[in-house]
Design a protein that fits this description.
Blueprint lengths: L2 H21 L2 E7 L4 E6 L6 H20 L25 H7 L1
Antiparallel strand pairs: 1-2
Helix pairs in contact: 1-2
C-alpha cells in the first residue's frame, strides 16, 4: 500500500469518527482495508441502518473528493464507494463479530 493510500485511510478514519459523532453513532470496532471497510456500529433507534450508512458513505466520498481530488463540488458521474453494502445485526455474538472485524 502506497503512501497515498495510507494518507487516505487515515483521513477516512477521522472522517468516519466525526460523521458517527454527528449522528450519535458509536463505532465499536472498525478497520479500513485496501478494498473495503469493516465496521461494527451502535446506531440509535431513531435512525435506520440505511440512513446512517448512506450518510457516512456520501459525506465521506465528498470529503475524499475535496481533500484528495481538489474538488469543491460533489462527484460528477463518479463513485468512490461501491453501490451496496452488507449489514447484519449483532446480538449475542458481538464480541466474536468485533474480533472478526
Amino acid at each position: 500500500m502506497g503512501l497515498g493510500q495510507n494518507t487516505i485511510r487515515k483521513h477516512l478514519g477521522e472522517v468516519f469518527h466525526e460523521l458517527a459523532r454527528q449522528k450519535g453513532v458509536v463505532i465499536e470496532e472498525g478497520h479500513l482495508l485496501p478494498a473495503h471497510v469493516h465496521m461494527c456500529l451502535s446506531i440509535p433507534p431513531k435512525f435506520s441502518v440505511s440512513n446512517v450508512v448512506g450518510f457516512m458513505k456520501g459525506k465521506s466520498a465528498i470529503s475524499i473528493a475535496r481533500q484528495f481530488k481538489g474538488r469543491q463540488k460533489n462527484f460528477n458521474e463518479e463513485a468512490f464507494w461501491a453501490r451496496g453494502y452488507y449489514v447484519s445485526t449483532v446480538g449475542l455474538d458481538k464480541e466474536m463479530i468485533k474480533e472478526y472485524i
